[in-house]
Design brief:
Strand order of the largest sheet: 1-4-3-2-5-6
Shape: flat
Helix content: 40-55%
Strand content: 5-15%
Oligomer: single chain
Structural class: alpha/beta
Distance between the termini: 47 Å
Mean pLDDT: 92
Amino acid sequence: MDDLPVEPIEISPPPAYTLISTPECFQKMLERLTKAPRLAIDIEADSFYHYFEKVCLIQISTDEKTYILDPLAIRNIGEFGRFVSDPSVEKVFHAAGYDVYCLRRDYNFAFANIFDTRVAAQLLGRELLGLNVLMEEFLGIRHSKRRQRDDWSRRPLAAEQLEYAAMDTHYLLRLRDVLEIELRRKGRIEWAREEFDTSAAAERSEKEFDPEGFRRIKGNRGLPLRDQAVLRALYRFRDKAARRLDVPPFKLLNDPVLLDLARRSPKSPGEMFHRRGVSYRVARKFSAEIVRTIAQARRQDPSFLETPVNNNWKAPNQSAKRRFESLKTWRQAKAKELNLPVGVVFPANPLENLAVTPPGSLEEMAGLPGMRRWRVREFGEEILSLLKNEHSQPAPT
């Protein structure tokens, strides 16, 4: 890929765009889109500012025009769904997973025929996969991401925000074409198409609150059981309070603050006003409730937090461990040969499935969970040969 010509870096003027915020403009946009064979699509959501996130902007570019659709002004955008589900119209995304999930969740859109520039760049061995990095590297265009964390639910939006949003799709079709040329040159276009199809069909369930998620807070395992019980109670309280205020939980009380409150619990609501990381708003609104929550947790018997043994889990046997190590060695060599990250050549989970349940044929391999057809085509015979050799080796003593 080093021999790919790169245009000189230019500071591009803000792209021209049309803001779609009335039903009349929306209908005119739909009429124009009927003639487009492909669309670049991106969204802006408000998960950084709200507990209940929503799509706040949809950017759409054809080869000629860029539109910024405001779904907060136009409530019924279902008609746009016919384009994203039309297999004759290619939809180009950068990192499609999140956008597809949000559009499916909020508008029940179905997807067909997508191209993901991030996945394409990943299959070409690129390590830095941000849209701004790829635009600069392959198109010579700088795209600042400093508005990335803006609150896109606020209205009106500033001109600079709309210009930033338009940049996300305005050059995306050009980037897509450059990446496709390189995928074809390396013989990896079929790899990419299968990954794109998987992304289009992927169904992600809406993330639910995990009441045991406090166990994943860094530092939890070093706490005494009673402090863990306090952390658990504060973690659950935080989620309920964040829902009431419609703010992300981390903006109410972040994980280090929860850990500190569990270790050094305040004795009175007044102390909350002087705790580092606790805002005045949170102290004023919730200090009494937080102190009460801590006191109740400390009165509990914390023995219920002792992690039960999972009797269904079985450690891999020695043969499976040996196969897994051999597969990892093979993967390392193959990644070096193809100039790809090891996780792109073979993710860890499918590799472990091969070690635990070694297939006897390519058909069996294709049926393993998480297996891609392109990996079976490209690497299947090598893997079967490696596993067969491992099977013929004497068992370790």
